[in-house]
Amino acid sequence: MNEPTQKRFEQRGLYFDELNLGAVYVHKPGRTLTESDNVQFTTMTMNNQGLHLDAAWTATQPFGKPLVNSLLTLSTMIGQSVAQLTEGTIVGQLGINDVKFPRPMFHGDTLYTETEVTALRESKSRPGQGLASMTHTGRNQHGDIVATATRTCLMWTRQAHLDSLNSKEVPVNE
Q1: How far apart are CA 70 and CA 38, in angstroms?
Q2: Which residue from 16, 17, 73, 165 lies 20 to 30 Å from 88 (Cα-Cα)?
Q3: 62 Rama sector, left if φ>0, alpha if ψ -120 to 50, beta otherwise
Q4: Measuring CA to CA, which residue among 101, 132, 105 is closest to residue 117?
Q5: Nearest residue to 164 via CA among 122, 132, 126, 133
Q6: How far apart are CA 148 and CA 143, in angstroms?
Q7: Statement: residue 165 has pLDDT above 60
Q8: What is the pLDDT of residues 27-80, one digit of tens each?
C-alpha cells in the first residue's frame, strides 16, 4: 500500500543568494537577561568586574545597580539572528566591527534585535560563497538602542552548499 509522502521542513538561515541588500530582518522573540544569566556569563568568562557582580558596590556607582555584561548583550544580539540568517548557511564568521553600547542593560531588561544587510559581494577566492556584512541593532523593552555591531560572514550560495553536501555522501555497500 502506498503511503502519502510526508513533507519535511528543516529550519535554516538564508543562503548568500537569498539575502537582500538593505533588508532589515526582525528577530523574535526577545530575550530577557536575568541576574543569573549575567552572573553565569561573567564568571564563566573570568570577568570579575564589580560592575557586573557586586550589587552593594554598584549601588555607590553612577548607574546605582549592576550592569549586564556588555559581551553577554553582544553575544545574545548576534545569537538572536542565527536562526533567521545564518543557521546552516554560514561557512564562518570573519569579523565583528564597530561595536557600541550606547546604553546599559540591567537585570530584567529584554533585548530585541534586528539586522540590516549592509553589503554583499561574491568571494573572489571561494566560488559558491559570498561575503555578507550585516549591522545588528539591539534595543531594550523601551526601544532604546543598547548595542550595535557590524559583522562579516562568509556564506554559502544554495547550489554550492547542496553540491558540497552531495559530494560528501557515503556510498552504501550492497
Answers
A1: 10
A2: 73
A3: alpha
A4: 132
A5: 126
A6: 13
A7: yes
A8: 999 999 999 999 999 999 999 999 999 999 999 999 999 999 999 999 999 999
Residue type (1 letter), 57: W
Sheet holding 110-122, edge to edge: 24-32, 110-122, 129-139, 145-156, 90-100
Task: Return the C-alpha cell found at 132.
Answer: 555578507
Return the SS3 of 73: helix
Residue 172 has a pLDDT of: 57
11 contacts: CB under 8 Å, gap ≥ 6: 83, 87
Measured in whole angstroms, how far is the alpha carbon of residue 145 from the centre of its chain? 16
Nearest-angstrom CA–CA distance, 134 and 84: 13
Tally Cβ neighbours within 10 Å of residue 4: 5
Backbone angles phi, psi at 16, to 5 degrees: -50, -45
Amino acid at 167: S
- Whole-structure pTM value: 0.88
Nearest by Cα to 136 from 86, 92, 88, 89: 86
| Span 133-164, pLDDT tens digits | 999 999 999 999 999 999 999 999 999 998 88
Q: Is 66 left (phi over 0), alpha (psi -120 to 50) or beta?
A: beta
